[in-house]
């Protein structure tokens, strides 16, 4: 096979030879004009046409050969050979003036050109074409009458000599081509060996760096609560070993309103963000590419997602704006590192979950003991009262006055309601923690709902002032029953812990667009800082010097669970001796699938 450069050089050399043939043809035309007056009338016009056609074709071939690719060069070569064979053989046919005229030797150019182009096959084709040209006079096609006197032996001799010349030239051309190909192959092999040796040395250095990076990633034991101090040295180590211009390690997280994003915990150089920045798929092309979970190279950026259990938990991002851009090999390396870091993060999460499970089991064991103790006390107290007064009515019913009987039955009814509330609280907790609580959000008017809350407190309603805060909406979307339960718990506590002459404020407002906040403000003894972290836990009760509380200590815990189930959160601010403010914040028009942010107790912990 001939290289493109060799084929182009041959074609350009033949262009020069073709000009010589054109000059020969022009000379023969001139001789015909001067000496051969008895030739047929078509000889001169045909000779001129052949010379002009060869010249024009030569210019076209030279121009096309400089621009052609391999396939085009092959087609140009076939067309050029056909042109040359036709023109040369016709010029020889026109110029032959008898058996002794040596002009037929020019026809040897055809098998020689075939040999130069295609070796032995080309020489054979050229010899056959030469033979056809020599046979034309024998069948009566001769430009000069004397040309018909060429005998068969002479034609056979000329054809055999043409074949011999073509075969010899073709053999030498084929041998030269094979030698050149062998030398070229040896040179390429030597270059390849040198390149492979150099690549092996480079890969050995890269492999050492990669092993060091993978070793560092495998030994990484991140603390999920403190990822930045752990992942920043890892990012620096990876960037140093891999000579990265800029690199970032980002871990999946949620924003303040629940949207998925990525936090940059490890940053080297300037990848377009700082450590601690959040990238959201909606506003960042890098975050959008990573959330898809497919490694990719996008211009100067290489993104390798970290996967755990089929989910994207983060990604490694490399950016190269001045040096070589990341390629497929680089992406494969980063993907391997991302897989390793994903496993490390998943392992850390599993360890954290295991520790949390152990701690949770301990807490459950403690709560079980507390629950048994509290339940036995809190249920026994109203049951004892009910049993005592019912027994009294049964034994002394005839001795009791109507007022006394009504008083005793009222006490029984109060204790029964207390039992019902305790059981309802336990049912709500069990449903929420089991994920079986069903919400029924609907559009509601806020002020009538707040009136329903205050009216439900009975005589204490006169101590509650309902206020409309700044930009307070008239309507919102929420589960009315659960919202009433939340606000009733808070206002009931506020009344219980405030002096009898103090007013409790129930206010609603718009803190930010799309959210509604409900403030319950009391003037009670306040909550100490230490207790503020525990009041939203199960079986925790607020104690005061003025009031002894009753119940399981589930009110604020249920309030927190229901608020977060509706996509909101609860906060508390308090000053000892001055009072407390509990704030429930909910979405105004939709229910979020998860709390938009943690509540006060979770953040404090």
Question: What's this entry about, in short?
Answer:
The protein is an alpha+beta fold. Helices cover 58% and strands 14% of the residues.
Q: Can you put this structure into words, describing what you see?
A:
- The chain has 605 residues and is an alpha+beta fold.
- Helix content is 58%, strand content 14%.
- It has helices spanning 4-35, 43-67, 70-95, 109-118, 120-135, 152-219, 227-242, 285-291, 328-396, 402-433, 446-455, 480-497, 529-532, 555-565, 600-604, and strands spanning 246-254, 260-268, 278-279, 296-298, 301-308, 311-319, 442-445, 464-468, 475-478, 504-509, 515-521, 569-575, 579-587.
- It has a six-stranded antiparallel sheet with strand order 3-2-1-6-5-4, sandwiched between helices. A five-stranded mixed sheet has the order 8-10-11-13-12, covered by helices on one side. A two-stranded antiparallel ribbon has the order 7-9.
- Helix 1 (4-35) runs parallel beside helix 3 and helix 5 (120-135) packs antiparallel against helix 6 (152-219).
- The radius of gyration is 50 Å and the shape is rod-shaped.
- It starts with a helix and ends with a helix.
Oligomeric description of these chains: single chain
N-end to C-end Cα span = 78 Å
Number of strands: 13
Sequence of strands across the biggest β-sheet: 3-2-1-6-5-4
Return residue spans where pLDDT drops below 50 for at least 5 consecutive residues: 543-549, 601-605
**How many H/I helical runs?**
15
Residue-averaged pLDDT: 77
Q: State the order of secondary-structure elements, H for helix, E for strand.
A: HHHHHHHEEEHEEEHHEHEEHEEHHEEH
Overall radius of gyration: 50 Å
Biggest sheet record: 6 strands, antiparallel
Give the structural class.
alpha+beta
Shape annotation: rod-shaped
Beta-strand content bin: 5-15%
Percent helix, as a range, is 55-70%
């Amino acid at each position: 096979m001939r290289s493109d450069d060799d084929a182009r050089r041959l074609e350009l050399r033949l262009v020069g030879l073709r000009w010589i043939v054109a000059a020969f043809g022009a000379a023969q035309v001139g001789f015909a004009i001067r000496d051969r007056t008895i030739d047929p009338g078509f000889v001169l016009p045909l000779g001129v046409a052949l010379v002009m056609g060869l010249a024009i074709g030569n210019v076209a071939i030279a121009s096309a050969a400089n621009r052609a690719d391999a396939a085009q060069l092959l087609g140009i070569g076939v067309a050029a050979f056909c042109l040359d064979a036709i023109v040369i053989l016709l010029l020889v046919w026109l110029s032959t003036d008898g058996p002794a005229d040596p002009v037929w030797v020019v026809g040897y150019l055809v098998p020689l050109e075939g040999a130069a182009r295609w070796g032995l096959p080309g020489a054979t084709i050229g010899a056959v074409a030469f033979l056809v040209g020599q046979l034309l006079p024998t069948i009566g096609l001769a430009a000069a009458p004397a040309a018909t006197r060429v005998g068969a032996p002479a034609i056979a001799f000329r054809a055999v000599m043409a074949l011999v010349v073509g075969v010899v030239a073709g053999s030498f051309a084929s041998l030269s081509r094979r030698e050149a190909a062998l030398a070229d192959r040896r040179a390429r092999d030597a270059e390849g060996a040198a390149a492979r040796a150099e690549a092996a040395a480079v890969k050995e250095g890269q492999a050492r760096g990669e092993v060091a990076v993978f070793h560092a990633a495998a030994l990484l034991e991140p603390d999920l609560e403190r990822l930045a101090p752990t992942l920043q040295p890892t990012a620096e180590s990876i960037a140093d070993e891999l000579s990265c211009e800029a690199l970032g390690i980002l871990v999946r997280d949620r924003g303040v309103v629940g949207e998925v994003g990525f936090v940059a915990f490890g940053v080297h150089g300037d990848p377009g963000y700082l450590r601690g920045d959040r990238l959201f798929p909606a506003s960042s092309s890098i975050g959008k590419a990573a959330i898809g979970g497919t490694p990719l190279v996008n211009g100067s950026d290489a993104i390798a997602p970290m996967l755990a259990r089929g989910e994207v938990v983060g990604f490694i991002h490399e950016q190269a704006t001045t040096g070589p851009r990341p390629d497929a090999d680089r992406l494969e390396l980063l993907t391997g590192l991302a897989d390793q870091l994903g496993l490390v993060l998943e392992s850390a999460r599993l360890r954290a979950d295991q520790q949390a499970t152990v701690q949770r089991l301990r807490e459950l064991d403690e709560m079980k003991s507390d629950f048994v103790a509290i339940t036995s006390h809190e249920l026994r107290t109203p049951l004892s009262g009910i049993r005592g007064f019912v027994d009294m009515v049964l034994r002394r019913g005839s001795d009791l006055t109507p007022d006394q009987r009504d008083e005793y039955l009222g006490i029984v009814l109060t204790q029964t309601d207390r039992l019902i509330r305790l059981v309802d609280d336990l049912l709500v907790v069990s449903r929420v923690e089991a994920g079986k609580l069903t919400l029924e959000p609907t559009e509601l008017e806020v002020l009538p709902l707040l009136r329903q809350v205050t009216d439900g407190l009975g005589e204490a309603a006169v101590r509650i002032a309902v206020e409309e805060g700044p930009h307070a909406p008239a309507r919102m979307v929420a589960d009315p029953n659960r919202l009433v339960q939340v606000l009733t718990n808070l206002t009931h506590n506020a009344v219980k812990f405030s002096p009898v002459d103090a007013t409790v404020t129930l206010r609603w407002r718009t803190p930010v667009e799309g959210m509604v906040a409900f403030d319950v403000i009391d003037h009670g003894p306040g909550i100490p800082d230490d207790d503020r972290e525990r009041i939203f836990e199960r079986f925790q009760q607020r104690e005061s010097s003025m009031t002894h509380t009753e119940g399981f200590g589930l009110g604020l815990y249920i309030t927190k669970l229901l608020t977060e189930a509706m996509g909101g959160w609860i906060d508390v601010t308090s000053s000892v001796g001055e009072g407390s403010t509990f704030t429930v914040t909910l979405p105004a028009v939709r229910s979020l699938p998860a709390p938009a942010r943690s509540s006060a107790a979770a953040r404090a912990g």
